[in-house]
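Known limitations

Files may contain more than one protein. Parsers should not assume a single record per file. Below, a two-record file is shown to illustrate correct handling: read the sequence, read the token line, then continue until end of file.
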Amino acid sequence: MGVVVRSALWGAASGTVLIGALAIITEFAAPSETPTSPLVTVIVILIITAMFGTAPGAMIGTAVGLIRRAVQKPKQPRVFHPPIPQQPYDMWSELVERCAESTRRVAAAVQTVPRSAAKDWLVRISEQLTQELDDVRGIAQLGRALGAVDRQHPVYQRLLTAAHDFKVFENEVGRVALQMFDHPELDSARVHLEVLEKQLPQLST
């Protein structure tokens, strides 16, 4: 049985006994001039006791029980979250992400081209660009390993050029993909695809 229920019952019982006793004492201490039936007297005493003793006592007891439960409620242990380590500014990550974003946009653009042999060729070119992204990450790792922080460092300049080449290649893929919407045949797209393949960034060479 919960603390609130116990307090409510205790309050109801206390109020019943207190008001009941008071009603009985009042009845016998000041008897009425007109005699009444004992049964009527008992019923009146019970009604008075219920109205002014049991019900208010139960309400007061419930309020006390709620307060006691709130006080006794064990506090939940505070979960400790270790502080998130602050990542130092990494000038390499920015360029790598620029190349990765171009790679994702190229792959998405290729998927919009109508199915054809020319599209299969364009897909292979897109996959080659994804492989070049691994070289981009390798260059960034080299810069970190050398502890380079100067933007004029040859490694940084190489990565900056790669980010530019990826962006230029992304734009060229978009141009070729648009032309292939009207002419998806391999013969019509062959020249554009050959030129595009030559413009593919070649970081490993």
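...continuing to the second record:
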Amino acid sequence: MSAPTLARARTTAPARSANLAVIHSAYEAFRTHDVGALLDALAPDVEWVHPDSMADYDLGGTKHGHAGVLAFLAQAPTVVSGMRLEPQEFVESGDRVVVFGVRYVTSARGRTERLGFIHSWTLRDGRATRMEDIFDTAAFRRLIES
């Protein structure tokens, strides 16, 4: 292989699959607070799943459809004053994309903590049909109650 070919190979990023592109767009929409773009990434019958132990704050369980996601997004600011997601690793297998990352959550009293998350996304026909949020609920609850 010639030197120019090697240089070109190093600077060419692998193409992103359609499923990965959808998930990246969902995180970008969340980052920019673009609810319309987030809903565009989600199927109308999406399942939006969070640990049942967060039900005390009306953030747990499974929300259904765009209306359920909107209700969840409206409820979150009543519990925490801010949240920033930083997805760090994307693993794709078939119709599933698993994302490992951290979120910076700010409590109502202004305390911010870095908390890990795993998001498991299932996709069909170019849209997410399920998002399951997996995280340390005890640490999240401690922050909310601090």
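Parsers that stop after the first record will miss the second one. For reference, the second record is described as follows. The CA atoms of residues 110 and 144 lie 10 Å apart.
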